[in-house]
Amino acid sequence: MGNRHDDTGTPRLSRRAFLGTTVAAGGITVLPVPPAVAQTPGAADSAPMPAAAGEPGRPGAPNAPVTLTVNGQRHQLALDVRTSLLDALRETLHLTGTKKGCDHGQCGACTVLLNGRRINACLTLAVMHQQDEITTIEGLERGGQLHPVQAAFIAHDGFQCGFCTPGQICSAVGMLREVADGVPSHASADLSGARTVSLQDLSEAEVRERMSGNLCRCSAYPNIVAAIRSAAGSQR
């Protein structure tokens, strides 16, 4: 079909002819760029990206002054308020003896002592412990002498790859204190506290139950239990 004419005799482009002309010309319609969007060449590369709110290490991150007492030393730090105690120890203070295993509180590799009590460092924030005494595996020895539990682990070969060992030792130190304080376990015959378990009669079943939160992928459990019972005997 060709062009049509209106009543005045002026040629009028038909719809089909218009579409054909548009396709032949490339079918591209160029729209003007709004002034607010228009950029000069290279502007996208040079323009700074807006800082994500609260992203660590970038402007706007919620850093705060934090004072931690670790192994008897006070440390003045500036930390993202969301930093776990584990990350503060490893990444900021470089106390890498405390290991990051599962980072979900399931393996016990990150166990440290908080005021003498064992905790998973991956499950708590550093800013929560500014008034506490934190002890890591590096702080157990005194005057160049190994802690009795450390010495027992060596004597009884209580480790293989060694990855879980710092957490095992810290947990064992805390656990022996619990026994000395008369804290029962699910393996204790008397849970009322009237008849407590002592370090002198700490059985294999008691050790296994009390240490069940610390996993050893190498399965060195028999030697770990023997080491802990030996250390308990030396602390009577």
From TrEMBL:
It comes from the Bacteria. GO terms for molecular function: 2 iron, 2 sulfur cluster binding; metal ion binding; oxidoreductase activity, acting on the aldehyde or oxo group of donors. Signal peptide: none annotated. Residues 41-63 have a biased composition (Low complexity). InterPro entries: 2Fe-2S-bd, 2Fe-2S-bd_dom_sf, 2Fe-2S_ferredoxin-like_sf, 2Fe-2S_ferredoxin-type, 2Fe2S_fd_BS, Aldehyde_Oxdr_Iron-Sulfur, Beta-grasp_dom_sf, TAT_signal. Keywords: 2Fe-2S, Iron, Iron-sulfur, Metal-binding, Oxidoreductase. SUPFAM superfamilies: 2Fe-2S ferredoxin-like, CO dehydrogenase ISP C-domain like. This is 2Fe-2S iron-sulfur cluster binding domain-containing protein. It comes from Cupriavidus cauae.
